[in-house]
Design a protein that fits this description.
By secondary structure, this protein is mainly α. It folds into two domains: 145 residues, Peroxidase, domain 1, CATH 1.10.520; 138 residues, Orthogonal Bundle (Peroxidase, domain 2), CATH 1.10.420.10. The protein is built from 13 helices and two strands, in the order αααααααβααβαααα. It has a two-stranded antiparallel sheet. Helix 2 packs antiparallel against helix 4 and helix 12 crosses helix 13. The longest helix has 17 residues. It starts with a helix and ends in a 25-residue tail after the last helix. The relative contact order is 0.16. The chain binds protoporphyrin IX containing FE and 2-acetamido-2-deoxy-beta-D-glucopyranose (4 copies). The site of one 2-acetamido-2-deoxy-beta-D-glucopyranose has 2 residues, from loops.
Length: 329
């Protein structure tokens, strides 16, 4: 009799998910008590020396998290046998200084508490510190992510929005990862800092259509300024424009105010100010910076735990640019 009852019970047990180790803000409290201070010191020094670091790190972090979770897979270098995420076309413009700030912090952490702190946690913490440092909101970063043991350029396909995609496509991409339209609009407020290269918006300012030289949704003075700036972009691929020309280095809600005036740089930015699905949120964040900061902070917290690997699902890499199996001992 008893065995008849037990059998179905035993079959049920494997279906229960194993207890997942949870992330927590004080994950390194005992094992690396100076974690936050070490990261903060490196971030401040780097950002003062190279003010483009914050924007670079924010984009790096987003691109890492949205492809297979926040697991520092984007920090792995390619080798003769494998092309890594980093070498997918959409990631090629990520600035070296963004990688460098993580490597610097990781190097110091390895001296103080070897083998303890993951590269994914360093990137998450450094990004939060950098966003706050340039004027953006503070948000808690829960810790305990593990690093991936692999990285493939092909895994990036279809996960990262491009400026020439339709808004419908972009909304679908975000929603497939659990982000609402409102969260998408808030996250894209990240374009209040940093640069975009001319090739990302050239189609809007040169030979736009048979009837218009530049995109008519653009402010005319803005379009003229960009045409001048980018005149030689085909020869010089390094030419880039500020995403937010009004307050380029400050994390604020100017991005949304710009959109209302036709001063959005990417087609995917500008469309959000007119499409009825996104316009209400653009108008809200343009009118109320606190509302933007609150929404951005919440959405970033959500990004920062997206698909994270914990427990045995990953490793703590000794070096951020290669999985441990490929590192000498
Ligand atoms: C709506 C979809 C989005 C599209 C189509 C998009 C596209 C782009 C493009 C094309 C660039 C210029 C890259 C270059 O030329 O170097 C850029 C820059 C940037 N993006 Fe986005 N992005 C989107 C959403 C986001 C989100 C959600 C974040 C972060 C939360 C973000 C953060 C950044 C930052 C900080 C930069 C400046 C990078 C730098 O100065 O180095 N973007 N984005
Ligand atoms: C969008 O741009 C990418 C890369 O710049 C290009 O490969 C793709 O064909 C473009 N898509 C459309 C729909 O124009
Ligand atoms: C725009 O079109 C004109 C005429 O077809 C051409 O000469 C010019 O090179 C084009 N400009 C760009 C930036 O593609
Ligand atoms: C671009 O480079 C080509 C070849 O290097 C040169 O012939 C051309 O004059 C350059 N164009 C501009 C606008 O500088
Ligand atoms: C702006 O947003 C904040 C945060 O959501 C809210 O508390 C505040 O009441 C809003 N201010 C106005 C003027 O609506």
């Amino acid at each position: 009799m008893a065995s008849r009852l037990l059998l179905p019970l035993l079959l049920l047990i494997p279906l229960l998910p194993p207890a997942e180790p949870k992330l927590s803000v004080d994950y390194y409290k005992k094992t690396c008590p100076n974690f936050a201070k070490i990261v903060q010191d490196v971030v401040v020094e780097k950002q003062l020396a190279v003010p483009t670091t914050a924007a670079g790190a924010l984009r790096l972090f987003f691109h890492d998290c949205i492809v297979g979770g926040c697991d520092a897979s984007l920090l792995i270098s390619s080798n003769p046998f494998n092309r890594a995420e980093r070498d997918n076309e959409v990631n090629q413009a990520l600035p070296g200084d963004a990688f460098d700030v993580v490597i610097r912090a990781k190097t110091k952490l390895e001296l103080e508490c070897p083998g303890i702190v993951s590269c994914a946690d360093v990137l998450a913490e450094a990004t939060r510190d950098l966003v706050s440092m340039v004027g953006g909101p503070y948000f808690p970063v829960r810790l305990g992510r593990k690093d991936s043991v692999e990285s493939r350029a092909t895994d990036v396909e279809g996960h990262i929005a491009l400026p020439n995609m339709s808004l419908t496509h972009i909304i679908e991409q975000f929603s497939s990862k659990g982000f609402s339209v409102q969260e998408m609009v808030a996250l894209t407020g990240a374009h209040t800092i940093g640069f975009s290269h001319c090739s990302e918006f050239a189609n809007r300012i040169y030979n736009f259509s048979s009837t218009a030289d530049y995109d008519p949704t653009m402010n005319p003075d803005y379009a003229q300024g960009l045409k001048k700036l980018c005149a030689n972009y085909k020869n010089d691929s390094t030419i880039a424009a500020f995403n937010d020309p009004m307050t380029p280095g400050k994390f604020d809600n100017m991005y949304y105010l710009n959109l209302q005036k036709g001063v959005g740089l990417l087609a995917s930015d500008q469309i959000m100010a007119s499409d009825p699905r996104t316009k209400p949120f653009v108008d809200l964040y343009a009118a109320n910076q606190s509302a933007f900061f609150e929404a951005f902070a919440h959405a970033m917290e959500k990004v920062s735990v997206h698909n994270v690997k914990t427990g045995k699902k990953g490793e703590v890499r000794r070096r951020c640019d290669a999985p441990n199996t490929l590192q000498g001992s």
